[in-house]
Amino acid sequence: MRALVVKPLPDKRREKVVATDWKEPASPIGNEVLCQALFTGLTNGTERNQLIGGNYSTSEDHLPVSDGYQNVGRVIETGPDVTKLQVGDLIYASVNHVERFTIREDGLLLKLPVDIEPGEAALFGISGVAMHCCRRVDPRIGEKVLIVGQGCIGMFAAQIAYAMGARVTVCDIEESRLEQIRQLGVAEQVFNTSGDGWDTQIQDGAFDAVMDFAGVPDMVTPMIRACKTRGRLLLVAGRFDVNYTFNIGQFKEISILQCSHFTCDDLENLCRFLRQDSIEIAPLIRHRVHIDEAPQIYRLLRDEPMRLLGTVFQWE
Length: 316
Prior knowledge:
Elements: E1 3-8, E2 14-19, E3 32-41, H1 44-51, E4 65-66, E5 71-78, E6 90-93, E7 100-104, E8 109-111, H2 118-121, H3 124-137, E9 144-148, H4 152-163, E10 167-172, H5 175-184, E11 187-192, H6 197-201, E12 207-212, H7 220-226, E13 227-235, H8 246-252, E14 255-258, H9 264-275, E15 285-290, H10 294-303, E16 310-314
Parallel strand pairs: 9-10, 9-12, 10-11, 12-13, 13-14, 15-16
Antiparallel strand pairs: 1-2, 1-4, 3-5, 3-7, 3-16, 5-6, 6-8
Helix pairs in contact: 3-4, 3-9
């Protein structure tokens, strides 16, 4: 069975390759279903963390390992207790980049409606994270929200926050990403914060909520400064710890929020927003390639991540 697998290199770096001898999943039991992958989606932040040996990556002595959490598959076999799914159904499932997998039908999955394009659903994981984050921040109509970082999750969050009624400002240091979000038309203000861009453009006390998808070191205090009194700061990007000037946060009575993945309800709401044309996935897919081309994509992810945005791997 094929799988995308992280392996160590002799120079202590890591690579991700297509393994052809990965262990087959067991036949489904109970309420499990067995699925054949059609598309999987790159989870840029999580998978790069794995490639560079980051703070939540697998230790070298436990490699090789498969990872990821965006898999769109077709049900090819059902267990005896399955009641909601049947052979032939397409599902999004939060599982690794593997050719076949089993999952409980009450697991973290969504049966795809016929009007949802399966290739786009391969990015339901990162867009699900954005949905979960926006629901945690819960922007009210007219509130000003700053979204820091315009990778895929940041762009999805900008669209969702706008659909929820927020007045959205975004920032990043990569101009091509900022141009992409301009084309989506959901942000009132778009700032390039490279160099001294943050200090000259992001005003203290301007935002009801700040959502950080960039994880740049030593930026928590400036983001707290950007919040209004009793504002909310949501921290998402992977980091070892959080350091900020406590008195600044205390003076503003800041609420610091964190998120953990997403839920089936978030996936249902993604479908609802897609049907309403409140969000778009297709414009964020920069690469759509056969699985055999995945190693080249992962070299870019490790060494030149800014060249990537949404990536979908086709398995058939």
